[in-house]
Amino acid sequence: MSRNIKKLSFLVIALSSIALSGCGTSGGGSGPVSQPIAQPSNVGSSSQPASNSAKTTTSKTTSKTAVTNKTKKSNTATTSSVTTTTSLALSSVAVSETGTGSSFVPVSSTISSILLPTGWQMQTMSLGSGGTSIKLTNPTDSAQMISEVIMPSDRNLQSFYNAQSTGTVHWIVPNQILSYTQSNPNNPYQDRGIEANLSSGGSVRVDVYLPSSEQSSATQILNSFIGSSAN
Fold this sequence. Notes:
Layout: H1 2-25, H2 47-83, E1 90-94, E2 113-117, E3 121-126, E4 132-138, E5 141-151, H3 157-163, E6 169-173, E7 177-184, E8 187-197, E9 203-209, H4 215-226
Antiparallel strand pairs: 1-2, 3-4, 4-5, 5-9, 6-7, 7-8, 8-9
Keywords: Signal
Protein name: Lipoprotein
């Protein structure tokens, strides 16, 4: 009897073991279930550096564009400043009214008026041998001037011509009127002038000192003294 009870007990244990083993492999049981591999926590933030890089690139591009625009604006302003020039105001003045008691003397007696800058100041002084010096100066820049030396005797124009460098002097009327361009150590502006022997006797020398931007004005003034081109 006891042997049968033992056999029955073994059978129950065996059946219980089989039942428990079957529950572990059943699809509907509560055994272990495979889970998908979780993404690393930093995968989602991997796009952040790319975003920062894009922002940095955009910032650099914007900065470069701003610098380029600033440079263009500066160049435009510089160009505008370089091309701005002034023009000397000239007035036609009757020869007999150019100065009190003295007047500029044109080359030809048929010339009744000459061109002179407006608002300049006149100075006259007597020279030895009966000569006269007349000077008209810019009150804001004394280096800008027109001077004329009037002498009762003729000048040796050929000697003056021979002493000048080629290309800086030429005859307007051979042996009577010549024009020249030269530097003067006592004046920062170039000296453009004429020398002439007058048909009525005596001679004149006219020198015009103006900035390089006013050379066309210097030419007009000299032309008004001789009644023709001084170029």
